Amino acid sequence: MSPHPTTIPALVRTRVRAAVRRPARLTLEERAGRALVLRLVSLLLQYPDSELASARTELTTVVEALPATPGAEHLARFTNWFAAQEPEALERHYVEMFDLRRKSSLYLTYYLHGDTRRRGMALLTLNQRYRAAGWDTDGGELPDHLPVVLEFAALAGPGGGEAPLRQHRRGLELIHRALTDAGSPYGHVLAALLTLLPPPTEADRAAVAQLVAEGPPNEEVGLDPYGTYGEGEFAPPGTFVPPMPAPPTHVPPASTSRREGPR
After folding, report:
1. Contacts (Cβ under 8 Å, ≥6 apart) of 45
2. Consecutive sets of 10 residues in the chain, 263 residues long: mean pLDDT of each?
3. What confidence score (pLDDT) does residue 215 get?
4. How far apart are CA 111 and CA 105, in angstroms?
5. Global pTM?
6. Compositional bias of type Pro residues: which residue ranges (predicted)?
7. Contact call for residues 138 and 115 (beta carbons, < 8 A)
């Protein structure tokens, strides 16, 4: 049932709902601050390689200088933990949280479309959005990888730039819940991001609960042009999975033939 009286014209109701969902008109300073938070979240959600690990002190300083907000508090809690860990421990924790757990994967279209043909189309749509805005990714990650989506949001601004984040809000909620349930400090990074988005609706909460219970949709089809691997899993960028060998049409006697595997 609509929260607005039925006497209000449909056009007015639509505009009221749209105004609730999008950020209020921001000053240039506010836009810059919002973009900085998005870039920080993007950086902190990337694999903690040696370059990122060596920048931990600088990142902590930048976070400490942010204006006092709930999002900044969440980021400060994370960077305090981040700065205190050994690099190898950070790498292990990241892999465990984001590479080995489906419910906290950073590939957003998975939560909305699962392993279905619709996911391939969603990836193409994201690429087209980036190109239409004049932004060309380096191709190192899929277009729905959360750090990539965050960088686009920071560059393109609160309107169209943040639209993919709003579209995938339910997936972000699920990632946050999974990280929090696992006791991972990365839950604070997702919490900081969620403070920038409109509050979840009852429909959002119900959809997240369904995702937790049932998982995303699934069908055994390819996701061309991106492809699948294993049991319908979506292949991370750079992953090579050798094809299954075709059965031989003729097997010569062992005494006259020798087969060697790849060296």
Report:
1. 106, 146, 147, 150, 186, 189
2. 45 40 71 95 97 96 96 98 97 96 92 86 93 83 95 92 94 95 97 95 91 74 41 36 40 40 36
3. 79
4. 9
5. 0.73
6. 239-251
7. no
**Partners of 107 in beta bridges:** 145
Q: What would the DSSP string read from start to end of 158-197?
A: TTTTTHHHHHTHHHHHHHHHHHHHTT-THHHHHHHHHTTS
Domains observed in the chain: 27-214 (1.10.3480.10)
> Are 170 and 112 contacting, i.e. CB atoms less than 8 angstroms apart?
yes
Q: Which two tokens stand for residue 155?
A: 């560059």
Amino acid of residue 133: A
